[in-house]
Write a structure and sequence with these properties.
This protein is of the alpha/beta class. It is about 45% helix and about 15% strand. The radius of gyration is 20 Å and the shape is globular.
Length: about 300
């Protein structure tokens, strides 16, 4: 009995120590990274209804416009150089790209803090900040207000879907390996077509979930293009340099450009939009724990 008590005590001490270590590492990263957002942003967007201003990186194409616009949402790491590079690359194709900081000044490369950022920035708060971003976008003379879309990567993919359910003025939604919604009754509120790009070797988003997402979009009557890239891990579209080097990243990026060309730039078809809904699902601990493993040790770890 004494041995069992001792083992139990040691286990508790180890767990508590591990928790304190993680908490301490997050605190250190907060202090060390306090100026990171200033480095990767170039625009301050006024907040709404008493909310703080939103920092963002904004990239403009050459010419007078009016141009279609894309809100580009970062991964769970936060706004960083990878997103800035992709925003610049997309702007070169004729879009005004607004990449906002949805974590209110927080960005990191440390996975525990990345998860902490998602936990502490609730979907309602994120949507409120994106409302400010959208209001700013449609006030800009260089932007065609009826051709605004949203796209995101990982956490940003899920956030893009959630914001499209919240804002029925968006013209198109692009999801790069974001956790999907599979309820057709919810998805019917989407205001326009959806492009979903997923990796076949992504352990955080099972293929059956992607297939269920596609089936539910079809049931809801939402035009969609869902593609699973065989053998690809989570977060396989990394940075603009890798995209430009060719291969599967370039293929996925080109698919996105073709989708945006059709649904934003030319807007060949206009759709009867859905009606915005209040959408705030509970935090999915299982998904984010698997996601953390994918980035730290799994199929996506070699991409960092």
């Amino acid at each position: 009995m004494r041995i069992l008590k001792r083992i139990a005590m040691i286990t508790v001490v180890v767990i508590v120590g591990f928790v304190l270590l993680i908490a301490g590492s997050i605190a250190v990263d907060v202090v060390m990274g306090s100026q990171r957002i200033k480095v990767v942003s170039n625009t301050t967007i006024p907040g709404q209804k008493g909310s703080p201003d939103v920092r963002a990186f904004v990239a403009y194409p050459e010419g007078k416009g009016p141009f279609p616009a894309v809100i580009m949402i970062h991964e769970f790491y936060g706004l960083n150089e990878s997103i800035v590079g992709k925003a610049k690359g997309l702007a070169e194709k004729g879009y005004v790209v607004v990449a906002p900081d949805t974590f209110r000044g927080s960005t990191t490369s440390w996975i525990p803090r990345a998860i902490y950022q998602v936990i502490t920035n609730k979907p309602k708060q994120v949507n409120q900040d994106l409302d400010a971003v959208y209001a700013w976008i449609v006030s800009q003379p260089k932007i065609a207000v009826d051709r605004v879309g949203i796209l995101g990567f990982c956490y940003g993919g899920r956030t893009s879907l959630a914001y499209s359910l919240h804002n029925d003025h968006l013209a198109a939604t692009v999801i790069f390996y974001g956790s999907p919604e599979t309820d057709a009754e919810i998805l019917k509120a989407l205001p326009g077509p959806v492009l979903g790009i997923f990796g076949g070797a992504d352990n955080s988003i099972p293929i059956k979930s992607v297939n269920a997402f596609e089936a539910s979009l079809n049931k809801a009557g939402i035009p969609n293009e869902i593609t699973i890239y065989k053998g690809q891990p989570h977060a396989f579209v990394t940075d603009i340099e890798s995209i430009r080097s060719g291969g599967i990243q370039a293929k996925a990026w080109t698919q996105m450009l073709q989708f945006l060309e059709k649904n934003l730039k030319r807007r060949e078809v206009t759709y009867d939009t859905g009606t915005a809904i209040s959408y705030s699902p509970p935090f999915n601990w299982g998904y984010y724990l698997v996601l953390a493993y994918e980035h730290a040790f799994g199929t996506a770890s070699h991409l960092h």
